[in-house]
Design a protein that fits this description.
The complex is a heterodimer of chains A (about 300) and B (about 290).
Chain A: H1 25-39, H2 42-66, H3 79-109, H4 112-115, H5 119-122, H6 129-169, H7 175-181, H8 183-201, H9 203-215, H10 220-239, H11 243-252, H12 256-259, H13 276-280, H14 283-305
Helix pairs in contact in A: 1-6, 2-3, 2-6, 3-6, 3-9, 6-8, 6-9, 6-14, 9-10, 9-14
Chain B: E1 2-13, E2 16-27, E3 31-35, H1 42-50, E4 56-61, H2 70-73, E5 77-80, H3 92-102, H4 108-116, H5 131-143, E6 149-153, H6 161-175, E7 181-186, E8 198-203, E9 206-212, H7 213-219, E10 220-225, H8 230-234, E11 240-244, E12 247-253, H9 257-261, E13 264-267, H10 271-280
The chains are: A mainly alpha (about 300), B alpha/beta (about 290).
């Protein structure tokens, strides 16, 4: 593209008495991530709102139970299942919320700044395209999983305090509740699930969305979906197979067989299903991460060439 | 060291040639006006200088290759693309925090000082500010950066006259010194005229005129000639002629002022007059079409 040669010799300005001024990359990344959180407040508002709703629902339910109107006792469940169900449900809801937030965040991350022309302002600052794209990728891959974990833990804690209060008020002992729930174990399982599935296993999905958002001029969501559907369709027509679809379903489904041992249930407190070695040695993980890296590299390159739209 | 040095700078978008082999050299400490009609290639030239677009040919900005070293270059270069690029969701205080966080040469106290002279509220969002205030804010951010080159591309587009005047006044009084270089691209010629040290006209991807303001005063003269003396004046080969009330106005390049004084009232032409004369007389362009 650029037939630049070094025919005009000159030294960069640093050599001319200006103090070398470089911001450490960690500080740069901190401000870049902070910037994303300022712009996209839904990153934390959405899961917090869902957590608030869960707590409100749980509180109403606890009050009902207090008056003996609880619906739970009507169903035949083991004691642990009955106790743990709302906790698992809360974790699932918060996780689902942050996943959706991550998808929409990625679709807009490199598109919005071109649409509102602010890319010209961001590019007027000494921040490389690589650092910018990495900071944006860190939102779904690092920030959201950690946020999900923190919000879930706090929510489940408050739920536990609420039910303990109900138990105590009814004159029952809370020991069974606390021992049956074993929240700390399920938190470990949750963290494992978030790191393996949401951060590592889903990385190619988020990075694909970032690539599309760097490329598309409009309707990023369509451009993200159309090629995927097209490949699946062409494969079906040409070869009458559906390997691509199956592969995709496996990726979206969280790659259950790679993450947990066969037959394991996510967040089963017995912990027998946590198989990091099995997960880390699965080819699907590493192929996925390679593809994610390639998508990111593409996004960095696109951002360098792209201006406002 | 030249602040900007380009040789044979070319850029094409498909079959449209935006830059057609530009050679330019901008020395340190100058204020250059890059003036041209819409679509002349001003923005493309600035984008190349700032590393926002790839190009062919040789180009050095502050001794760096802008396309491959944009992020390092931006430590020493600032630019205001136009009034609408500050993110609308951001609060004023957030922008101050962010620029302070990522820019090694940003002096926050200085920016706060500039803002104190305006009515901009620290807690306001950019979307709540008027167009003029957004420009004031952007200028405050940029002037607080100890940069060596400031590039402005139509910075006052769409602003009312008060803000426009204020913009260039603060730039000149509070920012410019002889270690800095400023390049301004615009087609609102009149209001930057008194600010510039050099002027360059660009038309259809080529530089068609360049001159320092000092040379402009000594070389070019505009004479209002009474009808009976027009023939004598034409003999001195004016570069441009147009009609005005009570006579013709003729523009001369390098003709002795004493000689011209005999023909009528002599004055130094404005950049706008020169622009019309130079661009309007370009081959293939109808006279006056460049207005």
């Amino acid at each position: 593209m650029n037939t630049q040669s070094n025919a005009i010799p000159d030294t960069p300005v640093e050599a001319q008495g200006f103090a070398p001024a470089v911001i450490p990359e960690s500080r740069l990344l901190h401000w870049l991530v902070q910037r994303e959180l300022w712009e996209n407040r839904s990153i934390y508002i959405a899961p917090l709102a869902v957590a608030g709703l869960i707590l409100f629902g749980y509180l109403s339910n606890a009050i009902h139970t207090w008056f003996g109107l609880g619906i739970m006792s009507a169903r035949q469940l083991t004691e642990r299942e009955m106790l743990a169900q709302p906790y698992d449900f809360a974790a699932l809801l918060i996780m689902g919320t942050t996943f959706i937030v991550g998808v929409f965040y990625c679709l807009d991350a490199l598109h919005g700044e071109r649409r509102d022309r602010s890319i010209l302002f961001w590019k007027s600052l000494p921040v490389s395209d690589l650092m910018t794209v990495l900071s944006k990728a860190s939102i779904p891959l690092v920030v959201l999983p950690l946020l999900t974990f923190a919000i879930t833990v706090v929510t489940q804690w408050i739920m536990l305090l609420m039910s303990s209060a109900v138990f105590l008020a009814k004159g029952q002992s809370v020991t069974t509740l606390w021992s049956q729930l074993s929240l700390s174990d399920s938190w470990l399982g949750l963290l494992y699930h978030l790191v393996t599935v949401h951060a590592l296993w889903y990385a190619p999905i988020f990075c694909w969305l970032l690539l599309v958002s760097a490329w598309a001029r409009r309707a990023a969501i369509l451009w993200a979906a159309i090629p995927v559907l097209a490949i699946a369709l062409v494969e079906k027509i040409a070869f009458n197979t559906s390997y691509f679809g199956a592969m995709l379903a496996n990726r979206m489904g969280g790659g259950a067989e790679a993450v947990v041992a066969p037959g394991g249930v996510p967040m089963d407190p017995t912990m027998t299903h946590l198989t990091p070695v099995h997960f880390l040695s699965s080819a699907g993980l590493w192929i996925g991460l390679l593809i994610a890296a390639a998508f990111l590299a593409g996004a960095v390159r696109l951002r360098r060439y792209q201006g406002p739209i | 060291m030249a602040c900007i040095e380009a040789r044979g700078l070319r850029k094409a978008f498909g079959t449209t040639i935006a830059l057609d082999g530009i050679n330019m050299r901008v020395e340190e400490g100058r204020i250059l006006g890059l003036i041209g009609p819409n679509g002349a290639g001003k923005t493309t030239a600035l984008d190349a200088i700032l590393g926002l677009t790839p190009y062919q040919g040789q180009l050095r900005t502050l001794g760096r290759d802008p396309w491959n070293e944009r992020d390092q270059l931006m430590r020493d270069v600032c630019f205001i693309a136009d009034v609408a690029v500050l993110p609308r969701w951001a609060r004023v205080s957030q922008l101050l925090d962010y620029v302070g966080g990522v820019h090694p040469r940003f002096n926050r106290a200085k920016a706060e000082g500039f803002l104190a002279k305006t009515t901009i509220n620290r807690t306001s969002k950019v979307r709540e500010l008027s167009k003029g205030m957004v420009t004031q804010l952007h200028l405050a951010l940029v002037m607080a950066i100890d940069a060596r080159l400031l590039v402005l591309d139509e910075p006052t587009l769409g602003l009312d006259i008060l803000y426009r005047k204020q913009f260039y006044d603060s730039l000149l009084n509070d920012y410019f010194d002889h270690n800095r270089t400023i390049v301004v691209a615009t087609h609102q010629v009149e209001e930057i005229e008194h600010v510039l040290t050099d002027v360059m006209f660009i038309d259809r991807g080529r530089i068609v005129f360049e001159c320092s303001m000092d040379d402009l005063e000594s070389r070019y003269a505009e004479v209002k000639v009474r009808p009976e003396q027009v023939a004598a004046a034409r003999a001195l080969r004016p570069m441009y002629e147009h009609q005005a009330i009570g006579g013709s106005i003729l523009l001369f390049d390098g003709v002795d002022r004493q000689q011209l004084a005999a023909l009528g009232e002599v004055r130094t032409p404005g950049i706008a007059d020169l622009f019309v004369a130079v661009i309007g007389s370009q081959p293939g362009r109808a006279q006056g079409a460049a207005r």
